[in-house]
What does this fold into?
Amino acid sequence: MSILVTGGAGFIGSHFIEYLLAHTDAPIVCLDSFNDYYDPAVKRRNIAEFAASSRVTVVEGDFCNSEAMRALFAQHRFEQVMHLGAYAGVRPSVERPLLYQKNNVEGTLVLLEAARAFPVQRFVLASSSTVYGGGATAPFCEDAPLGVPLSPYGATKRAAELLGLTYHGLHGTPVVCIRPFSVYGPRLRPDLAMTIFAAAISAGRPLPLFGDGTIRRDFTHIRDICDGLFAAMTADKAVGECINLGHSEPIAVRELITRLEQAIGKPAQIDFQSEKPGEMPVTHADLSKAERLLGYRPKVSFDEGVPEFVRWFLRV
Ligand SMILES: NC(=O)c1ccc[n+]([C@@H]2O[C@H](COP(=O)([O-])OP(=O)(O)OC[C@H]3O[C@@H](n4cnc5c(N)ncnc54)[C@H](O)[C@@H]3O)[C@@H](O)[C@H]2O)c1
It folds into this structure.
């Protein structure tokens, strides 16, 4: 019996595999296609520390391939699935919606079908705060009416959630949908604002800021996310539910830039550009359900997390 982590070479997936190595004795399969959404060399570095572990099997493959997934599930008889693999960027989804629908919706369905053929004890599905969309009232409560997603990415994440919940109702697949909010920390994805800003400030280059910097994000540290994901794999009452994992303290993007300037010790040269479509004005997690069902309470403050991220980024 073992644990499957899809997207295991990505930012969150690689941290979660390290978490599993530290907190369980289970064998782990790290499945990733090493696609070129961002430099695959970054993904190879993400897994470098654990790839040689006798407890981790790295499988380079595509979860959209249903025959390959059936064979993988038949071979390993997974006890738990942590489905983190996806195309995860908001803005690129506006340009490439079909790619997002293929990987995020069809790929999730392929995995749910494999889990129907070879039943698992838990199937945790990474959704996103973007499912709240425009018009949802902040702080976002899981069981209040959702808005309409503002990007194809958000729509594919909501579609994946709905398929998971349908499989739970129809086939009894023990699905839990997790909605992470702006995750950050060491090994952060290179396409995300915090990385792009840190790179520009440290190099003394102009920093591209889309809009006026007043949009707010509920930045949540990767260690807190790993605690919440692990609880979602084990907590009894979580099955069939959608659950937020956030920090519940939205920070304006302008404030993020100030914190990065302080941690790096250099001023930012801001290059104001017009707003890009698809972005939500604010994300803010209500955490009462996560606390009730998962015992989740974020511990890592922004004051602690940003300097830690900068130390990793500058490798000091
Ligand atoms: N990072 C965040 O702030 C955030 C917030 C909300 C939700 N999420 C969700 O969490 C999950 C992980 O996000 P991340 O930031 O680690 O992204 P990431 O891009 O670093 O990791 C995703 C991984 O999935 C892999 N992948 C994509 N399609 C695949 C396929 N068809 N077969 C096999 N592997 C495939 C990619 O190669 C990549 O390594 C995603 O589902 C994302 O939507 C992330």
The first strand starts at residue 3 and ends at 6.
